[in-house]
Amino acid sequence: MDSLLFLCARRVVTQRPLPALPADLQPVLFQAAFLDGRPLVLRDLVAAWPFPVLNFQRLVGRQELLRDHPCKLCVQAVILAVVAQLQRQLEEPGHHSSLRILDMTGIPDSTSGRAPDGMSVWSSTVALAKACVEVSKQQRELQRRGSKRHKGRSGAAVAAAAPRPPGVEVHADLFVNGTSYGILRDALQTGAASPLRLKCREFQAEELSASGIVALLESLDPSFVRRVDLRFNNLGLAGLSVILPHLSRFPELRSLKLQYSNVDVRRPTPESAIGIRCLAGQLGMLPSLRELNLGSSRLSGNLRQILCDLQAPLESLELAFCSLVPADLAFLSQSFHAPALKRLDLSGHDFSQGLLEPLRLLLEETSASLLHLDLMECRMADSHLDALLPTLRRCSRLRFLGLYGNSLSTAALKDLLQKTLELPDLHLVVYPFPVDCYKPEPPSESGWNFEEPVDEELLVATTAEFSQMLADSGRTDLVWTSNPYGHGTLDYFSL
Questions:
Q1: Per residue in 459-477, pLDDT tens?
Q2: How far is CA 8 from CA 11, 33, 46, 58, 89, in A?
Q3: Could you give the CA distance from residue 204 to residue 12 in angstroms, rounded to a whole number?
Q4: Closest by Cα among 431, 439, 435, 479 to 457
């Protein structure tokens, strides 16, 4: 329920111009204007912002609020207001503004929300980059005009003598691909002298060359970056050996994601052995690393060599579709990572064969810390789940369990539900369509259910049974769903 103060603020922001109000009411007015989709009011509020920091998440509230509201025009309005403020300061050196930091980190990607006019991380990156380039261009133009008016002095001397506004730092999460590479590179290269400066907290790049990624990484503020996500870049071990040395300049880097990097070391060669040693050594140069994603790399038998130089235990390890063998899981269960792991993704491995017992032993070692476990598309049948259940029940802090894409019956899923009700923190279970809810054709061995004919009536009845079991147990906080998408991922940084 909205507070009386917020309800009053919603009424106030319906009028423009806003009445004169105390400065301490500006945050609630900003929240009301943002959530009610009033971009012009937001521009007015930013223009007169009385505080040094404007933080989106703190002002608007929970990510769900941001995700479920059409915010594209509102985000653009805030950016344009900051640009207008800086342009005025450049034109009128005596004009001052209190705003020093615009924090746009943590704004959820519109692709994961329900708002039709949301702001994607890609589009916000482009908007911010264009704003930085625009302000920097105006600064250079004003310096050029000043140098013409002072013919007896060099342009450089005039530029050095001209007073510079303190400017605004924009803290943001940046996403770049081939389409946006040029504008982001130009924005980052404007440097510390620009009135509008990008500070990247989380950097994500897709489908770029190794040299392009390096050029952007070298332009980022080394003290601010905490996550680097390089996916679909087809880098291979050779490309990673070019990029990873540049990550050691980020002392706060806690998360590194290298999904779909085209790394395949299943068949050892002298070249792959050198590449693995190089990769391990470079990972060992990241003292703050706590999260690593090597999804879809073919690592069979090489996990020990890759992780051997890490200086501290990982808290999040994603190894989906990595062709792991029993020796890899045995190493992991005996390593110093196991008792520290909060997130573990082993999706895409065949646990119907020799991996089941190594998995059980690994879960024993992680049971005291594990919050998030992904075992989707792992060819698990009822007997395999039954063997794991005693260990799963010892994972007392578990919040998420992913089992989608496995061949499990309604009876096995009911047993899982009943026996995991005792886990107090379990909040979300993503289960597969039960095998007995299919029409006569059996599901394929791969565990993929997309092509199999589901008996919708049976599925609805089964879903209702699960819901009734949850209601009867009083666990209405526990969500059971067969939809594997749109739930967001656990961010161990916030834990």
A1: 999 999 999 999 999 999 9
A2: 5, 12, 20, 19, 33
A3: 39
A4: 439
